[in-house]
Design a protein that fits this description.
185 residues; mainly alpha
């Protein structure tokens, strides 16, 4: 089992906070739960991939947008709307060169098998971080369980995981043949 480094927790990321503030009305009662989810994913991804200021910013952009389409487009089939939001954000900030990697991070974040994206990219670490969070640490990918627990202590679920189950149940009733449209194999 690979043991990843425990990093100092990132507790204030301007990109995350700014995007969440901009979309606060769409997130409504789910704002705190989603914010905590985003910070958990960022910190778990950093524990897996490490990184400098540039990698932190890429992880932050992918994390803050990766599920946002649920609320901005009112759909559980949210990958395409989330990618579009991230792309618009990056282009507006003169970062079109980041679009392919951020897009792959969002598209593959619920992929069952390891991502086949460039091994030097953040796609696979981000996928693992998202799975650690959604499984509440049951899938830890070698990240110390004590670190995962500390991440959840700092940023508790705040109803986020329950909200995902509610959204999934609503989607399933309307789309029983496509119950998890965001999952890729």
């Amino acid at each position: 089992m690979v043991q990843y480094a425990e990093v100092s927790l990132q507790t204030s990321i301007p990109t995350v906070d700014g995007v969440l503030e901009h979309h606060a009305s769409a997130l409504a009662n789910d704002l705190i739960g989603y914010r905590n989810h985003v910070y958990r994913v960022v910190n778990l991804c950093l524990a897996i991939a490490g990184g400098d200021r540039v990698e932190l910013e890429k992880i932050a952009v992918a994390a803050v947008f990766h599920d946002l389409g649920i609320w901005t487009s009112h759909t559980f089939d949210y990958i395409a709307p989330s990618v579009a939001l991230a792309r618009d954000h990056l282009v507006a900030r003169a970062r079109p060169d980041w679009v392919p990697e951020i897009e792959a991070m969002i598209v593959d974040h619920h992929k069952i098998r390891p991502s086949q994206a460039n091994r030097s990219s953040l796609v696979e670490p981000f996928r693992r971080a998202a799975w650690i969070d959604v499984s509440r640490g049951l899938r830890a990918f070698g990240v110390r369980r004590s670190f995962v627990a500390s991440v959840f202590r700092v940023w508790p679920s705040a109803g986020f995981h329950w909200r995902l189950l509610q959204l999934e149940a609503d989607w399933f009733l309307k789309h029983p043949l496509a119950p998890l449209p965001m999952v890729r194999f």
